[in-house]
Write a structure and sequence with these properties.
Layout lengths: L1 E10 L2 E7 L4 E5 L6 H13 L18 E10 L2 E10 L2 E7 L2 E2 L12 E4 L5 H4 L2 H15 L1 H22 L4 H45 L4 E6 L9 H14 L1 H7 L10 E6 L2 E2 H4 L2 H23 L4 E5 L7 H11 L4 E5 L13 E7 L2 E3 L1
Parallel strand pairs: 3-13, 3-14, 8-12, 12-13
Antiparallel strand pairs: 1-2, 1-4, 4-5, 5-6, 6-7, 9-10, 10-11, 14-15
Helix pairs in contact: 3-4, 4-5, 5-6, 5-9
The protein binds adenosine-5'-diphosphate and magnesium ion.
């Protein structure tokens, strides 16, 4: 799968851009604040309908303009798709695939899959569970569009349940009404738990192997952590356990006005040689862990979709040492990659590759 071309109008610092991409490797070189990450952001949006940097679409529109546009042609085998996103200041964004408008961006499956790796991804290791849940949600959604639908539904039900907990109805009244939400929460929540468990199991296996090859033997393990006990249980058992735990916790939830039990509190433990990476891994080790996880995600998309996703590497390639760059280049072979860097990199590893080098300056791209 590859992005054939990309057109931007008033997208962040791009007034007007129209470029053709190489179907294999693309390298964008530019100083800081010239528009490298912005360009990757626009491609990521075509895949997921949202940015990896912000939830506020308005920020994306050029400061001096009222609307922004992204248009991209995507090719997968012999199938071609034309994805367009239009953002306006006072309206929700609109997405079209082959000129047909999607009813809601939440149902976007554009046919484009991407995996992005940027310095911000080190947050996956250093920060709290929210970052890891977000990673899980974005990754699983790309492989399984129904998952995204489940997450949206779950969040809606959770929001209503929490509102009820905070309402000034009588306690017995609230407890009675909770049951309706609990049943719904358990149904959707259990599907989410099962999807996350399957995904993490597979991701853990794949990244264990990749990480071991990248580090000559370090053991990377990923573990799914949930306050709903699911291990070794079937769907029915998880649902029953989840429901009971919600009921048992209802009085506590009433006091705090929030829901304590459920996958919205999930986490993914990342361990190196059986020690939690968050506490001890060096910057370099963290980068390698994230690289292993991202390359595993690439492999999982390939296994699920039959084609490689587009790999976006923002400012990370030149930070890797020679051995890891070499490993990456080997993995590149079959897929389209879009790499950004601030300096002309040591391209010796890339000499023979089919590649195009672009230069970015102040929202303009030269080849
Ligand atoms: N909505 C916007 N309108 C105009 N310029 C913007 C907007 N959002 C970001 N920028 C500009 O984009 C530049 C940053 O681009 P970015 O892609 O992050 O740079 P880098 O090349 O370092 O990755 C900054 O100069 C910033 O002011
Ligand atoms: Mg950048």
């Amino acid at each position: 799968m590859n992005v054939e071309n990309i057109r931007l109008i008033n997208f962040r610092n791009y007034k007007s851009l129209n470029i053709e991409l190489n179907e294999k490797m693309n390298i964008f070189i530019g100083k800081n604040a010239q528009g490298k990450t912005n360009l990757l952001e626009s491609i990521y949006m075509c895949a997921t309908g949202k940015s990896f940097r912000t939830n506020r679409d308005k920020e994306i529109i050029n400061l001096s303009k009222g609307e922004a546009y992204i248009g991209a042609n995507i090719k997968t085998g012999r199938t071609q798709k034309f994805i367009e996103i239009k953002m306006e200041r006072d309206k929700p964004k609109r997405i079209r695939v082959n000129k047909i408008e999607l009813k809601s961006f939440k149902e976007l499956y554009s046919g484009l899959n991407v995996v992005v790796f940027s310095p911000d991804d080190l947050r996956l290791i250093k920060e709290g569970p929210f970052e890891r849940r977000n990673f899980l949600d974005m990754s699983i959604s790309q492989i399984k569009p129904v998952y995204k639908h489940n997450i949206n539904r779950y969040n809606k039900i959770l929001f209503q349940r929490n509102n009820l907990l905070k309402s000034n109805k009588s306690k017995s009244n609230i407890i009675n009404l909770l049951e309706i939400f609990d049943l719904q929460l358990v149904k959707v929540g259990t599907d989410i738990i099962i999807s996350r468990n399957d995904f993490i199991e597979e991701l853990s296996k794949k990244s264990y192997e990749i990480h071991s090859a990248l580090t000559l033997g370090e053991e990377l393990k990923l573990n799914y952590i949930s306050n709903v006990n699911f291990k070794g249980k079937n769907k029915n058992d998880i649902e029953n356990y989840f429901l009971e735990k919600l009921k048992a916790n209802a009085n506590k939830d009433l006091i705090t006005g929030t829901t304590e039990v459920g996958p919205h509190r999930d986490d993914m433990e990342i361990k190196i040689n059986d020690i939690t990476a968050r506490n001890f891994a060096s910057q370099g080790q963290q980068r390698t862990i994230v690289l292993s996880i991202k390359l595993s995600e690439v492999e999982m998309i390939k296994a699920e979709k039959g084609v490689y996703p587009v790999l976006l590497l923002d400012d990370v390639f030149s930070e890797l040492d020679k051995q890891r760059r070499k490993y990456l280049v080997q993995s590149f072979n079959e897929m389209q990659t879009i790499i950004t860097a601030t300096d002309i990199m040591d391209l010796t590893e890339l000499e023979k590759e089919n590649k195009t080098v672009f230069y970015i300056e102040d929202g303009k791209v030269l080849q």
